[in-house]
Amino acid sequence: xxxxxxxxxxxxxxxxxxxxxxxxxxxxxxxxxxxxxxxxxxxxxxxxxxxxxxxxxxxxxxxxxxxxxxxxxxxxxxxxxxxxxxxxxxxxxxxxxxxxxxxxxxxxxxxxxxxxxxxxxxxxxxxxxxxxxxxxxxxxxxxxxxxxxxxxxxxxxxxxxxxxxxxxxxxxxxxxxxxxxxxxxxxxxxxxxxxxxxxxxxxxxxxxxxxxxxxxxxxxxxxxxxxxxxxxxxxxxxxxxxxxxxxxxxxxxxxxxxxxxxxxxxxxxxxxxxxxxxxxxxxxxxxxxxxxxxxxxxxxxxxxxxxxxxxxxxxxxxxxxxxxxxxxxxx
Length: 331
Prior knowledge:
- This protein is mostly beta strands.
- It has one helix and 26 strands.
- The chain has one helix at 5-14; strands at 36-43, 45-50, 54-59, 62-66, 72-76, 84-86, 92-96, 101-105, 111-115, 117-118, 121-122, 129-131, 137-140, 163-166, 172-176, 183-188, 194-200, 209-216, 222-232, 239-244, 250-254, 272-276, 282-287, 293-299, 305-310, 312-318.
- The protein has a four-stranded antiparallel sheet with strand order 1-26-25-24, with no helix packed on it. The chain has a four-stranded antiparallel sheet with strand order 2-3-4-5, with no helix packed on it. Strands 6-7-8-9 form a four-stranded antiparallel sheet, with no helix packed on it.
- The chain starts with a helix and ends in a 13-residue tail after the last strand.
């Protein structure tokens, strides 16, 4: 299924809605690009590109693989993963909400558990991750659904849905405790100056549906006074996974095409990829006609294909500019 951007935009205009965007100095989507549906299943979350393996996604309880010829198979069975990311050595780092841990798949196929508790208390549901230039891993730990199993509490007994940093020596530090409502997607800029955090409390009436930017200090902690609201999705589904392109623009999956009362009650469809400038201006909205848009990643031989996971389905969109993943590095 190919859906041209003009066609999808026409659908949105016919529905009587629009999303205000600022003009982009450089093109975002390749000329004549069409969002293309690649698969109806196996792509719930966590797309990560490997130049030899192809695209890995979290789906149907497994890590799924779509090889360079487009063939889909199970790469790691019953993995229970969400966010996936290759580190600078090409090793797959995985958020495992089912096992409540963050782990790494080594070159020999062995799994190394990077962390499965904070000060003796098990994590909630490690969700998404990012890596800075010093190879420090940052991951979010929200809880969606049943909250009876939560162990992490602050000094006042309040449940914690935080953001954590894993240093190369294995030390773990909580860098965000209650500064956001429910952290989800994360990305750190290549210069380590900023950390973007998706705040997506989508199963609570009036919960946060916001994207924030924090200044990141040299020691890997957050300057809380620098917290800046980039975008508020208000009554629709909030932001989820996100990635950067080579110009520093931010691509954020979010929104919803149908109402989900009482939590998400927007009047019109909003699901897709929201593209922001490095300064936080909304430059373009790329509609995806499938619920719900969960994540994205750049891939392909030139890193100019944006892969999008949405409701278990996988889409691709040719882009004008290459992405900037941690690995593989750009040529």
